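Entry 14. Structure prediction run on the chain below.
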Amino acid sequence: MTALEEYNNDKEVEKPKLTFPTRYFMTLMLFMGMANAYIMRTNMSVAIVAMVNHTYAQGDNAGIIVNECINQPEIKEEINDGEFNWSSTKQGYILSSFFVGYVVTQIPFGILAKKYGALRFLGYGMLLNSVFAFIVPIATRKGDWVGLAAVRFIQGLGEGPIVPCTHALLAKWIPPNERSRMGAAVYAGAQFGTIVSMPLSGLLAEYGFDGGWPSIFYIFGAVGTIWSVAFLFLCYEDPNSHPKIDPQERRYINHTLWGKNDIKIPPIPIKAIATSLPFYAILLAHMGHNYGYETLLTQLPSYMNQILKYSLKSNGLLSSLPYLAMWLFSMFISFVADWMIASKRFTPTVTRKIINSIGEYGPGIALVGAAFTGCNRAATVAILTIGVGLNGGIYSGFKINHLDITPRFAGILMAITNCSANLAGLLAPLAAGHLTTTVSIFDHILYYLVSNV
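Output returned:
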C-alpha cells in the first residue's frame, strides 16, 4: 500500500483552517525557484539567436541545407547578424554544456539532501547559477564559444540540486491529498519561467544594453540572486524546524505524512530501488519526456527564426506560447487528478497512468502532425501549442509519482530518474545540431527537384 492510499484510509486527522498556510508559502517559493531555474536554462536558447552570425553559420555547414520554406516571406525587421561565427554544431555544444553540468550533480545532491537536508543545497546552488550569469558576456567575448560553454557548464552545476532538492522538500511539506495540485503548482514554475524568459529575452536582445543579448544575463542573474537570498532566509527544511508555523498545521502535515510513527531517516534501500518495477516505469517515462522536451526547449527559437522566419521579438513570444498552454493545462489537470483520487473512483495508480498518458502521447502525436504542416506558420504554431500544452499532464503523472511510492526517498528517486532523463535530454541539442548539418543523398535529390521546379 502506498503512502497516499494509507492516508486515504486514515480518518483521524483534521485539516486546519488557515488563510494562508505555511506550506502554501513554501510551495510559492519553490514555484519561484523553479521559474528562475528555467529562466536560466532557456534564456540561452533565445540569446544565441541574437549572438550568432547566421550568414556564416549557414555557409559553414557542410553540404546543402534543404529548407522547404526558403521562399517564405520574413515577418521581421532588418536585423544585423550577431557577432559570433558559430556553426550549428558549435551552437549544439554550447546549448548542451549547461546540461552536462546539470546532469553530473543530480545523484550526488540527491544523496546529500537525504543526509544533510535539501534547503541549503538548493538555495546556494541557485545562487551559484545566478552569479555566474553575470560572467556570461565577458566569458563569451574573451573566450568565444569555449568560454561560454565553460560558464554554462558551471551554471548547470549550480542548477543541479533544483529538482531532487525540490522533491525532497515537497516530501516533507505537502500532505498526500494535496500532492497533485501542489506538485503541479511547483513544477509549473518551469513553464512560467519559460513564458517569462523567451519573450523578455527577445525584447532584451533587440533593445537591451551592452549590445542587447548581454542584458539578458545581467537582468535575469539579478532576479535569480534576489530569490536565492530570500529563499535561504525565509524558508525552512521541514515543519518541525519552522519557528512560526501554526502548531495545528505542523501536526496535520506530520500526521498525514508519517502517521503515528516517529520521523526517522532510514538508510537508502538500494536493493529495493534496483528491483522496483514501478521505479523503472517512472524512469523510462522521465527519459522519453526529457528528450522530446529539451529538443523543443533548445531548438524552437532557432526554428521560429530560421525556418518560419519570425523576428526576434515575435520569435520569443510565439516560442513561449506552447509553454503557456502547458502551464495552464498542468494546473487544470492537477485538480482533476486530485478529484479522481479523492472521489475513490480511481486508485492513485490508475490516476497517474491516465493523466501521464495524456501528457506523453498527446505531444508525441502533435509533433508527428507538425512535421506535415510544411510552411504553414499558423498550423505549425497551433499544433505545437496544443501538443506541448497536453504535456502538462506529466506533472500529475510520473513527475509526482516518486512521492506516492515513498515520500522518505522521493528526493533520491527523483535524483536518479532526473539524472538519467537529462542524459537523454543532453543528446537533444547535440543531435539537432548534427541532423541540421548532415545531408543525405535524399536531401541532394530533394534540393535538385526544388531548385528546378
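Confidence is low (pLDDT under 50) at residues 1-10, 61-66, 439-453.
Filed with the rest of this week's runs.
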